[in-house]
Amino acid sequence: MTAGVDTPDRRGRTGLDRHGRDLTGNPRVVIRDVEVLSCDWYVLRRTTFDYRHSDGHWSRQQRETYDRGDGATILLYDTDRETVLLTRQFRLPAYVNGHPDGMLVETAAGLLDGDTPEEAVRREAAEETGYAVGAAERVFAVYMSPGSVTERLHFFAASYQDAGPTTATGGIAAEGEDITVLELPFREALAMTHTGEIADAKTIMLLQWAALNGPFGHIRP
User: Fold this and answer.
1) How far apart are CA 155 and CA 140, in angstroms?
2) What is the pLDDT of residue 199?
3) pLDDT of residue 177
4) Which of 12, 18, 73, 170 has the most Cβ atoms closer than 10 angstroms to its Cβ?
5) At 62, is the secondary structure helix, strand, or coil?
6) In a 3-state reduction of DSSP, which class is residue 167?
């Protein structure tokens, strides 16, 4: 008996090996097998499939996919004062892969956890920054690391008011979060993407969007 397959895993899930078996959208791909390698919290699967190449021949391939669910992120901005609200928190994967201290500057973000993208991003903005979100603009939705991670991240932007946070900040202590809120001039935040002080992809994408097509399109660094 395998947890997450025949018996419930620690999150009560079963049948995790059935995910992806019924895909029929691409006639060049035939799914042969799906194995669950780990489901301690998120799910690591190994999928075996046949793939028809452009020259017509078929090959059997295997890929591992990491399924942590979809997420959402939001850029909070104040056009009157030309500022943005970002966060700083420790990220172990970045730390073990060369980041000097693992403390990344980011836009507020989190997993959907059953909510719609806009519901989730409002929840995360409140938990991480303490600020209530105004009308949220949907920017785009992208696959951040499609070679191995299934997550699709939904991007939003919204204004915030210079009235201070309306709830406690710092994230969810029970989940080990220890988040610092940063209010930065937009020009400074954009410059930090060039110096490497901001090295988080989703944050760079939203800041670039804000400069090119968003609320700060009139500003030049």
Assistant:
1) 5
2) 98
3) 64
4) 73
5) strand
6) coil
- The strand order across the sheet containing 29-38 reads 29-38, 43-52, 58-67
CA-based nearest residue to 128, from 72, 209, 81: 72
Residues 6+ apart with CB under 8 A from 146: none
CA diameter of the chain: 63
The DSSP-derived string for 91-136 is: -HHHHHTT-SS-EEEE-EEEE-TTS-HHHHHHHHHHHHH-PPP-SP
pTM score, whole prediction: 0.92
Q: Radius of gyration over alpha carbons of the chain, in Å?
A: 20
Q: Which two tokens stand for residue 137?
A: 């603009």
pLDDT of residue 144: 96
| Type of residue found at 40 | D
CA 70 to chain centre: 7
Both structure tokens of 44: 């690591």
Q: Report long-range pairs for 109-113 (Cβ below 8 Å, ≥24 apart).
A: 109/71, 109/72, 109/73, 109/74, 109/153, 109/202, 110/71, 110/72, 111/68, 111/69, 111/70, 111/71, 112/69, 112/70, 112/71, 112/72, 112/154, 113/69
